[in-house]
C-alpha cells in the first residue's frame, strides 16, 4: 500500500449508509474523501458538513457533475437499487472505479450490463458487503478449509432479521417497489446468500426452492422470506430474512468433522473485535450430560472497522490499476454476480408458487 497512490473517492447520493462509508474512507489508508453529490447543492453541502469531509472536498449539486470531474478516481454508489444500472454504467463510461451498494441490481441481467460497462472501460467493481473484509472472516474461512478440523461442508444455515418500526415499513426505500423492489430479499437476503456461497467456496447450488409463507406488503414487496439451496453432491443450505423479527445475524456451517457458529456476522457486536465458535470431532461424555470437547471461542481484533477494511481493499485494487496498469480484479464482481443470481432464483421460485428453480450460471 505504501507505494500505491492515494485514491480520490466521490460519493453519489446521501443515503444513511453513506455516513458510515464516509467515515470508513476517512479511516482507510490511501483513500481520500474527495467529493459528494446530491440532487441539490444544499443537501450535498449539509451532508459533507455533517460527516467530517475534509476541507478540500468538493460538493456537487448533480451526480453528473461529480462524474465529470477528472480528479475523481472512484465513486461509492449508495443509490436505490433501481438506479444502479443507470449510474454505475455511466460511472464506468466516465472511467470511475465503482464501490456499489448491494443488491447490485434488480436482477442479474441488469448487473451483467454494469459488468459489460466496467469491462469495456477497465474499471474495478466491488460491492459493499462489508463483513467479507473483516479479519474474522478470513480466520473463519481457514477453519472451514481445514480438512482435519472441519472436513467437507454438508449444511449451512444463515439468518438476518430485524424488527422494523411502522415508519420503516411504510416509508423506507427498501419497501418501495420503484426504488428497492427486492425488499428484504435484496437487502437482508443478500447477506444470507453471500454467507452460504462463502461457506461453499462460491460453488453455486444446482437448485433453489423458496420456502412457503413469505410476507409481502401491500405493494407486493417481500418483507420476509426464506429458501433452501441444494447441491447435487448432497449439500443443503437454508436462509431466512425478515423485517418483522428481532435482530439476528447468524451463520451455522456444519462439516463432516466440525462446525462453526456465530451470531453477529454482518455487524459485529463490537467494532474492533469479533468472535466465533468452532468445534471438531465432538461427542458426548460417558453419561451423555455434556459435550467432549467443548466448543472453542476465537476472538479476532482489528484496528480498522470492517467497512474501512473494505475501502482499504478497494483502493488497493484501484491503486494497482492506476499505478501499475494492472487489470481489474474479477473475483469480487464474480461473487457479486453469483449472489445476485441466487436472489433472482429465490424470487422466481416465490413468484412461481415455490417451485424448484434450476440454477444456471
The amount of helix comes to: 25-40%
CATH architecture of the largest domain: 2-Layer Sandwich
* Straight-line distance between termini: 34 Å
Which term fits the overall shape? globular
Q: Which fold name fills CATH's third level, the topology of the largest domain?
A: Dihydrodipicolinate Reductase, domain 2
Strand content: 25-35%
The count of domains is 2
> What is the number of E strands?
18
Poorly predicted runs are: none
* Largest β sheet strand count, sense and barrel closure: 10 strands, mixed
> Strand pairing plus helix content: what structural class?
alpha/beta
Number of helices: 10
Mean pLDDT: 97
Helix-strand sequence: EHEHEHEHEHEHEHHEEEEEEEEEEHHE
CATH class of the largest domain: Alpha Beta
In CATH, what is the homologous superfamily of the largest domain?
A: Dihydrodipicolinate Reductase, domain 2
Protein name: Gfo/Idh/MocA-like oxidoreductase N-terminal domain-containing protein
Domain Gfo/Idh/MocA-like oxidoreductase N-terminal: 7-126
Family: Belongs to the Gfo/Idh/MocA family.
InterPro entries: Gfo/Idh/MocA-like_OxRdtase_N, GFO_IDH_MocA-like_dom, NAD(P)-bd_dom_sf
Amino acid at each position: 500500500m505504501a507505494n500505491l497512490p492515494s485514491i480520490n473517492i466521490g460519493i453519489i447520493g446521501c443515503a444513511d449508509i453513506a455516513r458510515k462509508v464516509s467515515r470508513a474512507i476517512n479511516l482507510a489508508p490511501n483513500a481520500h474523501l474527495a467529493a459528494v453529490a446530491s440532487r441539490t447543492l444544499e443537501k450535498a453541502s449539509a451532508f459533507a458538513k455533517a460527516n467530517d469531509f475534509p476541507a478540500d472536498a468538493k460538493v456537487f449539486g448533480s451526480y453528473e457533475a461529480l462524474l465529470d470531474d477528472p480528479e475523481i478516481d472512484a465513486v461509492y454508489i449508495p443509490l436505490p437499487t433501481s438506479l444502479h444500472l443507470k449510474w454505475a454504467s455511466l460511472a464506468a463510461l466516465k472511467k470511475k472505479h465503482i464501490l456499489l451498494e448491494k443488491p447490485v441490481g434488480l436482477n442479474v441481467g441488469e448487473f451483467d450490463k454494469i459488468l459489460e460497462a466496467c469491462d469495456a472501460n477497465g474499471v474495478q467493481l466491488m460491492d459493499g458487503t462489508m463483513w467479507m473484509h473483516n479479519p474474522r472472516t478470513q480466520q473463519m474461512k481457514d477453519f472451514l478449509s481445514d480438512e482435519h478440523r472441519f472436513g467437507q461442508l454438508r449444511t449451512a444455515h444463515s439468518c438476518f432479521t430485524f424488527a422494523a418500526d411502522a415508519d420503516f415499513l411504510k416509508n423506507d426505500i427498501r419497501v418501495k417497489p420503484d426504488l428497492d423492489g427486492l425488499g428484504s430479499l435484496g437487502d437482508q437476503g443478500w447477506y444470507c446468500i453471500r454467507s452460504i456461497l462463502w461457506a461453499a467456496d462460491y460453488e453455486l447450488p444446482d437448485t433453489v426452492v423458496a420456502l412457503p409463507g413469505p410476507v409481502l406488503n401491500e405493494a407486493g414487496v417481500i418483507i420476509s422470506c426464506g429458501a433452501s439451496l441444494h447441491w447435487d453432491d448432497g449439500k443443503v443450505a437454508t436462509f431466512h430474512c425478515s423485517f418483522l423479527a428481532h435482530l439476528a445475524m447468524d451463520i451455522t456451517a456444519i462439516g463432516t468433522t466440525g462446525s462453526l457458529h456465530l451470531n453477529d456476522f454482518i455487524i459485529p457486536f463490537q467494532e474492533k473485535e469479533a468472535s466465533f465458535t468452532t468445534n471438531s470431532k465432538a461427542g458426548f461424555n460417558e453419561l451423555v450430560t455434556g459435550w467432549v470437547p467443548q466448543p472453542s471461542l476465537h476472538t479476532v481484533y482489528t484496528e480498522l472497522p470492517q467497512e474501512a477494511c473494505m475501502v482499504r481493499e478497494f483502493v488497493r485494487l484501484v491503486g494497482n490499476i492506476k499505478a501499475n496498469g494492472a487489470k481489474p480484479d474479477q473475483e469480487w464482481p464474480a461473487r457479486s454476480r453469483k449472489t445476485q443470481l441466487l436472489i433472482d432464483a429465490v424470487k422466481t421460485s416465490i413468484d412461481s408458487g415455490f417451485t424448484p428453480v434450476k440454477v444456471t450460471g
